[in-house]
């Protein structure tokens, strides 16, 4: 039987435990797993028998979360890692090596920018930054050493929207994967497979967990990429043994070797969040729409939100997404005014996380983006007078009232 998305989020990959009937995954908070027979342990190590031996490599609680995320994305497999940054790093290092190039949309989260300019380029991989909303720039930047295209589904915090179907067509033409960080869009708002996305990465810390209580990330293979034709040595070698699961096998090996495994307890908390993901995001989008409409009527501020008709990619967002996201940015005229508003907020917390049940706000320019040049900040949509708001689950009238009192006297 076919179910609606909200139902799938609760039930896909979440069957009761076969041995106990538990309806939530047990927390296997252990470093290692014992085997009575040394031959059995040898077989597990060599892939001849199923089993577990060390939680850095695999763990039943992690497997349960991977199964759930694979199910809600209708994908072929997932690799849960320690954070969203680990998801991006592991993906790139699974696909590219020294001498290769990757093409990256430059509307990026600050730490992602630092990752590409630091660890990735230090590994000998050339990163070509292009306008996230200009598919022609992506196509022109690709050369015979390019191994992937990377873009955020909704830019953080520029909130620009790339045309994923166009980028997928470009990637398919070149025989390389389109990798999309869909943290802002969530599995609820973006049907990645219908847009032709090959690989998804998420910071599960944000909306998927949703409680602000845990750090995590995940890599998802949608099954749309033909890995047998992908021209890298490690993927080619893996495809001989694992076929269409070649990328997943390499990504799991990178996870193990890099030590970027997630704690079983964190995986358990994330799994709990999936049950309410659709409900939460639906309400957060409604709250964000109401708050953005309030801001639009305020003469002293400039508001940016994909749900407003004034947004340059509003129509594309309407076609590509089920909703416009929960992030709003405001330009207030100066850093001093931005700080004044943040200090006056009573209900809304000043912190760097997002996707929480609580409404939170931050001044990104000298915090998250402090190490970028002024030009890089502007290209990422980070201005000296900007605050970023992640809209939560409080009653919309209370959120609006808090910002209304904080904005009083602003001109």
Task: Write a structural description.
This protein is an alpha/beta fold and 411 residues long. It folds into 2 domains: 5-273, Aspartate Aminotransferase, domain 2; 278-407, Aspartate Aminotransferase, domain 1. The chain is built from 16 helices and 12 strands. The protein has helices spanning 5-11, 38-45, 60-73, 84-95, 110-122, 135-141, 164-174, 186-189, 233-242, 246-258, 264-275, 277-296, 314-320, 335-344, 374-379, 396-407; strands at 77-81, 101-105, 126-130, 146-152, 178-181, 199-202, 217-221, 302-304, 327-331, 349-350, 360-362, 386-390. The strands form 2 sheets. Strands 1-7-6-5-4-2-3 form a 7-stranded mixed beta sheet, with helices on both faces. It has a 5-stranded mixed beta sheet with strand order 8-9-12-11-10. α8 (186-189) links the parallel β5 (178-181) and β6. α9 crosses α10. It is globular.
Present the secondary structure layout:
Blueprint: H1 5-11, H2 38-45, H3 60-73, E1 77-81, H4 84-95, E2 101-105, H5 110-122, E3 126-130, H6 135-141, E4 146-152, H7 164-174, E5 178-181, H8 186-189, E6 199-202, E7 217-221, H9 233-242, H10 246-258, H11 264-275, H12 277-296, E8 302-304, H13 314-320, E9 327-331, H14 335-344, E10 349-350, E11 360-362, H15 374-379, E12 386-390, H16 396-407
Parallel strand pairs: 2-3, 2-4, 4-5, 5-6, 10-11
Antiparallel strand pairs: 1-7, 6-7, 8-9, 9-12, 11-12
Helix pairs in contact: 3-11, 4-5, 4-10, 9-10, 14-16
Using the 3D structure, state the CATH architecture of the largest domain.
3-Layer(aba) Sandwich
Give the helix tally: 16
| CATH domain class of the largest domain | Alpha Beta
CATH fold type of the largest domain: Aspartate Aminotransferase, domain 2
What is the assigned CATH homologous superfamily of the largest domain? Answer: Type I PLP-dependent aspartate aminotransferase-like (Major domain)
Number of domains: 2
How does the major sheet shape up? 7 strands, mixed
> In order across it, which strands form the biggest sheet?
1-7-6-5-4-2-3
Please report the total strand number as a whole number.
12
**Average of the residue pLDDT scores:** 96
Order of helices and strands: HHHEHEHEHEHEHEEHHHHEHEHEEHEH
């Amino acid at each position: 039987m076919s179910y609606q998305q909200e139902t799938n989020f609760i039930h896909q990959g979440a069957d009761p435990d076969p041995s106990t009937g538990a309806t939530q995954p047990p927390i296997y908070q252990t470093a290692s797993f014992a085997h009575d027979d040394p031959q059995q342990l040898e077989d597990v190590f060599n892939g001849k028998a199923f089993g577990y031996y060390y939680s850095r490599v695999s763990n039943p609680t992690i497997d349960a979360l991977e199964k759930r995320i694979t199910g809600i994305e209708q994908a072929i497999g997932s690799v849960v890692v320690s954070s969203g940054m680990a998801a991006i790093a592991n993906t790139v290092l699974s696909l590219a090596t020294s001498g290769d190039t990757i093409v990256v949309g430059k509307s990026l989260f600050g730490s992602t920018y630092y990752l590409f300019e630091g660890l990735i380029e230090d590994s000998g991989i050339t990163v070509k930054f292009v306008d996230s909303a200009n598919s022609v720039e992506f196509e022109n930047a690709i050369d015979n050493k390019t191994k992937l295209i990377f873009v955020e589904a909704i830019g953080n915090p520029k909130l620009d929207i790339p045309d994923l179907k166009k980028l997928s067509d470009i990637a398919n033409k070149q025989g390389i994967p389109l990798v999309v960080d869909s943290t802002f869009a969530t599995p609820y708002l973006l049907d990645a497979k219908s847009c032709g996305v090959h690989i998804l990465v998420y910071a599960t810390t944000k909306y998927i967990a949703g409680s602000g209580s845990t750090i995590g990330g995940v890599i998802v293979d949608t099954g749309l990429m033909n890995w047998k034709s992908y021209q890298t040595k490690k993927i080619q070698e893996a495809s001989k043994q694992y076929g269409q699961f070649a990328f997943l096998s390499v990504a799991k090996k990178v996870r193990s070797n890099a030590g970027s495994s997630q704690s079983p307890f964190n995986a358990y908390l994330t799994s709990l969040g999936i049950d309410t993901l659709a409900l939460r995001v639906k309400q957060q989008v409604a709250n964000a729409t109401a708050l953005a409409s309030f801001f639009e009527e305020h003469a002293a501020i400039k508001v940016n939100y994909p749900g407003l008709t004034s947004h340059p990619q509003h129509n594309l967002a309407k076609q590509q997404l089920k909703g416009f996201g929960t992030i709003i940015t405001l330009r207030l005229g100066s850093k001093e005014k931005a700080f004044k508003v943040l200090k006056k907020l009573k209900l809304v917390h000043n912190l760097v996380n997002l996707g929480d049940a609580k409404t939170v706000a931050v001044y990104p320019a000298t915090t998250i983006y402090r190490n970028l040049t002024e030009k890089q900040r502007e290209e990422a949509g980070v201005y000296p007078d900007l605050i970023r708001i992640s809209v939560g689950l409080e009653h919309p009238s209370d959120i609006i009232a808090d910002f209304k009192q904080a904005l009083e006297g602003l001109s």
